[in-house]
Amino acid sequence: MLAKVEYGGVQKYIKIPQIDGNFDFQNFLIEVTDKFSLQAQLVTEGVLSLTDTSETEVDADTFDELVKSGVRNFKVGYRQYPITDIAITLDESDSSVIPDTSPSPASLPDPPASPASMPDFTAQSPASSISSDSTIILPTTRNRKRAMKADLDRDEARKRVETALSSNPKGEEIIKEYDQTKTLSVGTRKQMVNILVAEMVETYGRIPPMHVRPTYALGIVTLFPYLQDPYSKRGYEHFYDPQANTGYLAWRLKTVQRNTHDGFRECSRPDFQDSPTTHRESLLTGDQLLGEECREALSIMRHSTDKSVVSEKTRATFDYRQKLVHDQDATASVLDVFPRFLDTAGLIEQDFSMMFGDHVSGRFLARWSSDFKHRVITECQSLPSSPYVDELLAASDLQVENDYGWDSDMSALLLLLHLLPPTSKGQKKTPKMSSAQAVNHVVRFFKEGASLTTFLDKVDARQPFLLCIGEQKKKIARFFIVVDQKAIPCNAQTSVAAFDVLFKTHYVFSLSYDEALSAFYTFIQTTIYNIDVGTTKETPRVKELRAKLLQDHYNVTNSQRSEHS
Q1: Angle CA 349–355–360, to nearest 5
Q2: Rounded to whole angstroms, how far apart are CA atoms 228 and 40?
Q3: Cα–Cα distance between 21 and 17 in angstroms, integer?
Q4: Which CB contacts under 8 angstroms, 24+ apart, belong to 559-565?
Q5: For 284, phi and psi rounded to 5 degrees?
Q6: 383, exposed or middle or buried, with CB in 10 Å at 0-12, 13-18, 19+?
Q7: pLDDT digits (tens, 9 = 90+) for 141-190
Q8: Strands (E), 258-377
């Protein structure tokens, strides 16, 4: 569906993106910035303002309903910066009073190219108009400075990065690769970071000022906008995060400093949360049982053969169960107190929905196959060839006959693990785990007919994993989630649905991600489920992969739009 959008007196037709059958406000603004050649960061910073023809502001909550009701015409402008006013009174009797020369509407300047570098003070408001008693209301110096310092000068940052790359023979190849592919390979990205850090050290010394470092990161995503991470606050934190002093630029800079035998003082780190172990209240308003009523409900659900009664009592004891799993002394006994999780499928999904709502609970199944699976497979085709990766790529292709490997969905999920492999933590006390080895921490195959009890007795992992039982990997008859040597049954009919339950198990039982799978699960959490975005620690590789996969989506959308225009 197309909408007519006006910006700066120019009107253009723009396609309205849809997600899960709903018209998406955020992606529509991104399309607008692309069509009018505006900075993509204006969307993430909330600077752009969308109004209908009556000048009424449109937001994310009302956008879908308005479009479906027939509204197709919009205007784009910039939000007004908050102003704390001061009054300056002119003495009319003074012969030196300067006459009113305020500009007429026709002579007002055009909207700035980027509100991040120059706020729009031209629009008149009751607080900024000239009153009849010659009192002029002006923004305070503090607010002017705050507006001007809201972001680094994007144009200056872009020129700095462009100049550094253009002066290096490898830099020209980097720019050429981006122009052709709208992305950078891992090797090319490393070359770019090395060039920019070398230029930074040459210009500012071995320890460049802290305020200089974000300039290079900002310059990268301004010069190469498809490398910007749409989910992070500034869009460039995977290159340099000024709060945590992390990112590709920071890491390379630390390497250079270490090689010059000079110490490095680390900045204070932001307080990130371990998302699965965060205590959460139920979103539902139903009564929760306490005290004697709770103990009675536990007894009823333990002996009841009616699944609806078990489900109802499990729902009513959610708060008690959450207190249990967050109590270090009691968390190991949660499946002893609530044994019906071991024979009643669907209780994990129920608890997860009580935490986040049905909409969040359904995001993975709604988005994985349609939005991410094929992009992950495409991205993995550029990985170095190895028997395991080649086997997964072949199994993920529905056109290729596969008798021994996993089905297409599970193969694609395990390919994602190869894009986000386990990383060493710096202290090499234990050997680094390979992606192929890490697969056993996600999923294991169990031949139908073998002793499940014997298998569970040998399991020593605290973190949950998916157990698939069947004759072949691609033909699974039953799925279980293994936690604390206990097998929790799944209702899932497909491997992707079973994995969805595996992910939710971490939250329901307050279990941290397996250390080897931290990047893998964090990507799924923030990028697909959109849980705790901005408060969860993400590695630069997670942010970079998200930028690639999501920008690939925008590239396809823009390409399709160009074909139809």
Answers
A1: 70
A2: 8
A3: 10
A4: 561/15
A5: -85, 155
A6: middle
A7: 555 454 444 444 788 899 999 999 987 778 888 999 999 999 999 999 99
A8: none
